[in-house]
Design brief:
By secondary structure, the protein is of the alpha/beta class. It is built from 7 helices and 12 strands. The protein is about 30% helix and about 15% strand.
Length: about 300
């Protein structure tokens, strides 16, 4: 065999090895997380990277309802405000809810677990579980849940007009005081007075469940525009996500992170509600509630690169 043939074979082998290595490492970071109906404990198969997360002064989590990723992203006719935020946000293209119907997903993002009786007002077992609000309070931080239409601070009833308790999981935990259960009208005008972590829950008309996408998008524009302007000048993170999609099998939902610590762009890191909870917990050095302990924090979207 001539030297030219030997060199040619060696070059082909080298190219094949490089190709295999590229496939191996890239496929591990972009694996689709598919959560079929009824599966509530799936874990994103991320690598073992542990990023250095930012520590915002405030985190505001806004939860909309029952819309798939494709129903919002790119739908400038019905959701012009949300699509105007996308160029300034980390948009997670592989974000998934963990269950159907609605209520289990709210418990998932707040307490790292799901209830077993769907949207029923009474739940068993859950009120004794660890949860984000209690973790914050124990560690000297603050939490408030703001629900549109809540008839009075501390209200623990099931339904009041377009308010539904099933979308306010903190109302189920006796360790969360009445002062942390507030109507949206109590959201501070002086944003510096925000709690460390706040959840904002629109009512059934404004969360895109009973109302239209356009209606919910306009509510978000009115509710968030001044908060977005403030967060851009301060160390505040705003998270906009959906409880579940209207697609039974994939449960593919939009999730956006907006804030000065966020690197805008489309992010293919696969995440669920558990990963969002884990990320907030790790930002403040909190323990991990439920299945948040089984996933990794979101590391790919921050302006400061994660430590490898």
């Amino acid at each position: 065999m001539t030297m030219r043939k030997v060199l040619g074979i060696a070059a082909l082998v080298l190219l094949a090895l490089v190709g295999i290595g590229f496939w191996y490492f890239s496929s591990g970071r972009t694996r689709m997380v598919s959560l079929p109906l009824g599966v509530s404990e799936a874990t994103p198969q991320l690598s073992n990277l542990r990023g250095v997360l930012p520590r915002p002064e405030h985190v505001v989590v806004v939860i909309e309802e029952n819309k798939s990723f494709d129903a919002i992203v790119g739908n400038t006719a019905e959701a012009p405000y949300l699509n105007s935020l996308i160029p300034h946000a980390a948009l997670f293209t592989r974000s998934y809810a963990v269950a159907h119907p609605s209520q289990p997903n709210y418990f998932a993002i707040f307490a790292g677990r799901t209830n077993s009786n769907g949207d029923a007002c009474a739940v068993s077992g859950i009120p004794t579980a660890d949860n984000l609000g209690t973790e914050l309070l124990i560690h000297g931080l603050t939490f408030v849940g703001y629900s549109e239409g809540l008839p009075a601070p501390g209200y623990r009833g099931c339904i009041a007009g377009d308010y539904a308790r099933k979308h306010a999981p903190w109302t189920y935990f006796p360790t969360i005081s009445a002062s942390a259960v507030q109507p949206f009208t109590a959201f501070p005008h002086d944003y510096a007075k925000l709690p460390t972590v706040a959840f904002v829950i629109p009512d059934l008309q404004d969360d895109m469940h009973a109302g239209s996408i356009s209606h919910g998008d306009e509510w978000l524009r009115r509710a968030l525009t001044p908060r977005m302007a403030w967060s851009a000048r301060h160390n505040a993170l705003i998270i906009i996500t959906w409880d579940e999609s209207n697609a039974e099998l994939t449960n593919h939902i939009p999730t956006l992170f907006v804030g000065p610590m966020v690197r805008p762009g489309r992010d293919a890191e696969p995440i669920t509600h558990y990963a969002v909870l884990r990320t907030i917990e790790d930002m403040y050095g909190l323990p991990h509630a439920g299945h948040a302990a089984d996933v990794q924090p979101i590391v790919d979207c921050w302006r400061v690169p994660p430590t490898r």
